[in-house]
Design goal:
The chain is an alpha+beta fold and about 240 residues long. The protein is about 35% helix and about 20% strand. A 5-stranded mixed barrel has the order 5-6-9-7-8. β5 and β6 form a beta hairpin. α2 (about 20-40) runs parallel beside α4 and α3 (about 50-60) crosses α4 (about 70-90). It is elongated.
Length: about 240
């Protein structure tokens, strides 16, 4: 189904056109509003449910929907709403949707379950808002490099396709002094592809902020431990930072 919807599209899709025209008109209006809002706002990650749609319609139209016909309306509306939201986001050029089953998972993610408190918080957010709180980021090979909890929630609640962004993570191997032991830190997004071997960077350590010398810059390969300290910024010659 392509959006915005028309009456002819519903008819060709086998929609029950014997329903009252008011019902069909309201159905099309709600679906097209979802599509247009998603397109304008570049809205991603939403998973509509009948209850969520009902709540939103009650806010917009200032009415209560609590009879059998209303419940049927929101049940039918849900699948179309999720499809319209996905197409609206794609039309904005802001996101690409991929099937959940097509996302590759590195062994380091599969071997380390998320902290229960963090999982519970993100699941509660999803249940209350119908939106995955954290974006899923894939590398160029389609493997997940961030957003593992969102991936797990999508699997748990049967979401077939999710919005993703493509990117990469980079890790530096660095020493505190020439010839010293190598340690690993992760580069923040603003420094990816901007750090070279031999540069000095500021990093977080157990002893506070320290300066280290970069010996290697590597793309995240999925076999590293998941927890890294983070580079703060790079030091330029003369003590300046960037």
């Amino acid at each position: 189904m392509r959006y915005p919807l028309t009456t002819e599209q519903l008819q060709s899709a086998g929609f029950d056109m014997n329903m009252e025209m008011d019902f069909i008109t309201a159905f099309i209006r709600v679906i097209n509003n979802i599509y247009e809002k998603s397109r304008r706002m570049k809205r991603t990650g939403i998973c509509f449910t009948p209850d969520l749609l009902k709540e939103q319609c009650e806010k917009v139209y200032g009415a209560e929907y609590d009879n059998k016909e209303d419940n049927m309306f929101f049940e039918v509306l849900t699948e179309y709403a999720n499809d319209a939201n996905r197409q609206g986001a794609e039309a904005s050029g802001a996101v690409e949707y991929v099937p959940v089953d097509a996302i590759g998972i590195y062994s380091c993610f599969a071997a380390h379950e998320p902290e229960p408190e963090k999982m519970q918080q993100k699941e509660q957010y999803f249940l209350e808002n119908g939106i995955l709180q954290s974006q899923i980021i894939l590398d160029s090979r389609g493997n997940l490099i961030d957003g593992y909890i969102s991936f797990l929630l999508a699997k748990k609640y049967g979401i077939r396709s999710v919005p993703v962004r493509y990117g990469k993570r980079q890790i530096i191997q660095a020493t505190h002094k020439p010839g010293g032991r190598l340690y690993s830190w992760e580069l923040p997004g603003l420094l990816i592809d901007r750090i070279s071997i031999g540069e000095r960077v500021l990093v977080h350590t157990k002893s506070g902020v320290r300066t280290v010398i970069v010996k290697e810059v590597e793309d995240y390969a999925g076999h590293e431990p998941e927890a890294f300290g983070m580079v703060i910024r790079a030091r330029r010659r003369g003590g300046a930072t960037k």
